[in-house]
Amino acid sequence: MGCAVTAKLLHVRALDREQDLSDQEILSRCAAGDERALGALYRRHSLTVYRFLSRLVGASSPDLDDLAQAVFLVAWRRSADFRPNAPVSSWLFGIAANAVRDRRRSERRLFRLLTRFKENEPPPAPAPDAVAMHRELVDRAGAAVRMLPIDLQVAYVMCDIEEVPCREAAEILGLRIGTLWRRLHDARKRLRKALLEDAK
Amino acid sequence: MKIPTFEDVSRAFSEHRGGPVPEFVRACPEAEALWRDLEAIQRATRESPVRTLSADELVVREVELLQTVSRLSAGPLSKTWTPSSALAAAGLASIAIAAGITLLVVAQSDPIGEERLGTARVISHTAGARYEHFSTSDPIDDTARIETLRVSKGLLTFKIPDAAPHSRFRIVTDDAEIVLSSGDVEVGVVDGRLMKLRVLGGRAELRREDGGPLMLATGNFWERSPEALAGPPASPEQSRARAAEPASPEQSRTRAAEPSAPERGHASEVDPPPTDTRASRSEGRLPTLRGPRPQRVIAQESSAHAEVAEEARATPATRRTESPTGSPHQTQEPIGARGAPQAANPDELAYADAWSLLQTDHPSRAADRFADVGDGPLAPDALYWRGVALTRARRSSEAEAAFARYLEIYPEADRAYEVTVLVGFLALDRGAREDARIRFQAGLQAPASAVRMAARRGLDALDDAPK
Lengths: 200, 467
Description:
Helix content of chain A: 55-70%
Largest sheet of chain B: 5 strands, mixed, barrel
Number of helices of chain A: 8
Order of helices and strands of chain A: EHHHHHHHH
Structural class of chain A: mainly alpha
Oligomer: heterodimer
Number of strands of chain B: 12
Strand content of chain B: 15-25%
Shape of chain B: globular
Distance between the termini of chain B: 60 Å
């Protein structure tokens, strides 16, 4: 704990009529360097960003807080670049996807270095009743999504789970719509195989 | 009637989100079953747990964020958030929450001192250069930080001070990652794609999406051929395909002027070590390094140059190279460079030689060459890679000795947990099950998930191995 931080707390007001401001107006203020606007952006979208990141890295991942902070730091720096042809939440998803991709890239190397892979673990035996089976499916679904390659994972979570329209998602991710559809299809196919076919 | 394929159903699923099931799907029981499966998976995924923040947590995290922003705004790439400051702010925030006050933390710029040394700085950049900086915890050691700079465009020179023992630094583009712990590098990026990297001091590892890693030392540089700008990053297959095509005159000129890395052996393309997974599992042996990638891929897809001692002393004119973008500033001495690059010292040469040997599938000689690296800043890495090379050369007892020495000398090193797990695998191979189990169990405590997973795999292998 050797880092001495000189900080002072200032009592300041939140942005005037913050609730009346649109996301775009908040981002404009971020672009102008108003840190209160970043706070407003955070309060408005942090839960959505955490939810999205949870789908990609797991709800209990120790990286989650760092990633969420990274997303808003990037949003802060890039706020001037935001174009209002997509909702801010989708734009934040795109930033979050990049942050996770960066993290994965460094972890992948380490993983390759260390692991003796096993092929996919055999699925556990199905539970005896429908409720238990559904609970098990829910547990396995989250894990199966996280096992997808990052590009498929992002496409699936963004479009099928967060319901970002495909065209909007393609634009944010810098993809052609056909490429996005292909990724979505591949993701669904793999998930179906992992979750349903193997269990049958 | 044509039976819809999975792809047809999937496409319809994208297009009819939330709407009724399309007629062509309802008309076919198999297609309808697929549709229901997709809905079930979607529902299950939505129900899987996500992280939520309580109101208090939300405020604390917001304070952390704002404090970090204040710090970043205080100067070019200044310090990042630290645990102690987080605790301090959390405490203050709690008081504030209790008082019902909306707070904003405004951090004063810390005095320039030792803490600043752990942080990279931008020495220079071209007009319009774009980059973002953020900091995350190190997956190996959660007390350490990894600073990441995502560069979108421009020519930038970064300096990473030597005294940053608990930080690692990454420069990331859309298609590459540069990892270094100290030194000076110049990076050229166009449209998010890395076009050039020059190491002005220290060492850097370049990892590309379209090729294997490259180790570059002082004076080395790498650049992408101008043609590569024309299209998206090439897949390895595309790269191989291009290798068969005749080189353009410009490329030929570049290669003639500057021999490629394999000829010089100072910018080494290596595959990251292990894993030959299936073979190693089925044969119950240690993971092995894979063979080197074909060097012709490098020569055609990009130019990897090594400017060693002789070139380092040459005049700027003789070291001129083709500019990837043709802009004049890229053929001049790098902004911020302190004279000509320094000649590589004997340790760096030994290290680079060892890398080349490892790359060219001479692990035993590589191990011996790594042993020539003296007690300088390269010593920890050299000892680690000596252990890896010995492992691959099947000199297992020596490998264990090298790793044991590593753990003895550098018990707090980033790689200590990795090495522990690797020793576990070596112990398993020689039948020392209890020793292996202890190592793997220790590996379960690693901060990095990949290391923990490797340790779990080791424990699984232990259970599977004949007693």
